[in-house]
Amino acid sequence: MLLASGVCAQAGTVTVQVTHIDVMKGGKVKIGIYDAHGFPIVGKEIYGIDLEVKELSVTHVFKSIPVGRYAVAVFQDENNDGILNKNLFGFPKELYGFSTNKYGMFGPPDYLDVSFEVKENTPVLLMINLK
Prior knowledge:
By secondary structure, the chain is mainly beta. It contains one helix and eight strands, in the order ββββββαββ. It has one helix spanning 111-114, and strands at residues 11-19, 28-34, 47-52, 58-66, 68-77, 96-98, 115-118, 124-129.
């Protein structure tokens, strides 16, 4: 439910801390919050932000996230082209990570393996290590 102020009546915060950023490679850290339908396709995130690479870690707080189930996907966009670049075999060439630090064997992990619940007035803290 959206109040007149534009804030969701039943909402929480999601704090995402991303570590193991390669400062030498630069670029941006792209953080996306996804539902089951868009995960983990860049451009299909419900909420997202791009942060300049300046340090080994970054933290961002997403406020007023409606109650529900979500997953976070992150990657370091070294060349600022907006996509997670992959090699000929389909493996990522840029650092990436997911909400529960689980990784898939031959592609992204299953949404249910990396998803979490946002509950009303209950902060969520995710620490994601890029790999």
